[in-house]
Amino acid sequence: MKISAQDSVLKIRFQPEETPLQDGELADSGAVFSVKNQYAYGWNMDHTDATVSRDTYDNSGISSLTRIHPDGKWEIALDNGTYEVSVTVGDSVYSSNNSLTVENIKVMEGLTLEAGQHRTVKKKVAVEDGRLTLSQINAAGIETALNSIDISLVNTYTPALIPPQIRLPFEPNKVAGDKVLLSGSMTNVHNAPPFIRVNGLQGEISRHIREQIESNEQQIQQLSQNAVAIRNSDIEAIQSSIRSSGNKPAIIVTGQLNLESSVTFGSAEQPVILIVDGMNTNRNLNVTVYGSLILRGGLNANTELDVNVINPAPDENLGNLWVQGTVHLNNNSNIHVDNELFAGSLVYNNGSLDLSAKRIVVQGNMNINTMVTMNVDEEMSVGEVVSNNSRAELNVAQGDLFVRDNVSVNNHLNINTGGLFAVGGNVISNQRPVIHTGNEQAGRTLLKYVLSGLKAEYYSNNNFTGKKAVKVDESISLAGQPVLGVTGIADQHFSVRWTGQIQPNYTDQYIFSARTSGGVRLWVNDQLLVDDWTTKQHVEQGTIQLEAGKKI
To answer: How does residue 483 score in pLDDT terms, banded at 50, 70 and 90?
Structure first.
């Protein structure tokens, strides 16, 4: 049973059956739990013998009560939700000692009142099992004098959707798709790619990126403690220390590297984990590292740079390029990383950039200009993407592309993933990006999510024929808005069919309204409630009885 509105109050008075009742109140005469007065309420044991009316000698106007028996418990059936409960206790003739809980929350304990004294205590409680329960706290000398209970609705209980999660195990994603999963908005709807609304992505992607960063930082700290320090960033001294090291891999830490010529650190036989403060290059050159290269600052290349980080052994701790600052590249660069590329941010200007890695993590912005191709095996996670390219290709062969914040597209952007493409912020597209997800051979995803909304089938003609596109709409509300992200469907000349389920909180009569500028038919629980297939603007309504908690 429901309390119909947040402003209404359900008032229960504990009084003998023969006592007159004021309008708008319910009487409880001490009977056991049963249906009465359209509500189900009562005691776990008979209290009719303890429900009395007193001659009042005070001006409280409170003349009736129930003295609760040991282990006494009173309940009323209510819809799940949050309620404010006001409990009044006291006896006009005798003293009382009162101890009560409501929904296992202590309302009063050992509250002693003299004859003629009454006390009202308010508590907000959550009902989660369909019954609000009031119980006496048993102790020596406790015999609560219960006068009344007032119950008002704070808010109804709405089951929470399972938030999205990025976690193992991988799940197959072998079905081809063309949509982005989006928590934010499409700010330029005419160039918007197809999308599916999934709330909560930004926080989950942020957590996922943050955990990877924290793990890398811990490893860098541990490696630095075990490293051999080389002063003055002398290249020959670094190479000599690697060759003479008795450890595989050698771990070397040094300062800033300002490179004027190509260089190789380590070898297939003697890999190295090289930790440097930062790296600058001003010439066309190659940097090759057998092992891992860790930059505590940035990587700045003012002209062509080729970087090759090789894992010479089956060791997951090797083959990494970790840059805690900014990777700033210019004029035709190539970056190959056998394992993971991590960057605080990544900026590319002029010419072409070819980048390949097993995984890519960019904590902040990734600004990619001109011609960019990125080939990733397993996963790419980025804070924000700004694409000003004449052409950009972001390819994740097996796994997911996660963007925590916004994606801004000003030219040609192609995204191909074996897993999913998920954006926590907005997509701002001055030219529609091309998206392909899923891979029949090796596609997989770490993202687990639950859709909320209605299945929407859009047709390019107004009679459910022509080109068809299917998406999930969070709500049915198209007033003043074009059909977002549905390629080839005109804004005012389409037809659409929505299907889904609803689960009412209350058992009651429900009114369904449809405001349209065209024909509309509405079925609820296989009943046709609205049937008006005209082109005029109109509002139609239909009524149906629905049962609380029952999906239809």
So the answer is: low
Chain segment 104-136, per-residue pLDDT in tens: 888 999 999 999 899 999 998 888 788 899 999
What's CA 488's distance to the chain center, in Å? 31
Q: What residue has token string 């924290």?
A: 214
Residue 68 confidence (pLDDT): 96
Structural domain of 422: 179-448
Contact 84, 154 (CB under 8 A): yes
**Would you say 98 and 118 are in contact if contact means Cβ atoms under 8 Å apart?**
no
Cα–Cα distance measured from residue 101 to residue 302, given in angstroms and rounded to the nearest whole number:
72
pLDDT band at 13 (very low <50, low <70, confident <90, very high): very high
For residues 331, 337, 343, 346, the Cα torsion angle rounded to the nearest 10 degrees is 20
Query: Which of 125, 156, 187 finishes a domain?
Result: 156
For β-strands 333-337 and 305-310, DSSP reports them as parallel
Which residues, 6+ apart, have CB-to-CB distance to 347 below 8 Å?
326, 327, 328, 329, 365, 366, 367
- Please list the residues that pair with 482 across neighbouring strands: none
Please report the sign of the dihedral spanned by the C-alpha atoms of residue 361, residue 310, residue 437, residue 189. Answer: positive
Contact between residue 343 and residue 326 where contact means Cβ atoms under 8 Å apart: yes
Question: Considering its fold, how many domains does the chain have in total?
Answer: 3
Q: What stretch of H or E contains 385?
A: strand 352-396
Helix (H, G, I), strand (E, B) or coil at 407: strand
**Whole-number Cα distances in Å, 309 to 64, 213, 224, 254, 322:** 85, 20, 19, 18, 11
Residues 334 and 441 in one domain: yes
Cα–Cα nearest to 497, from 525, 536, 471:
471
Nearest to 476 by CA among 493, 503, 457: 457
Q: Are 189 and 143 within one domain?
A: no
Q: Between 290 and 483, whose confidence is greater?
A: 290
Residue 514 · residue 492 · CB < 8 Å? no
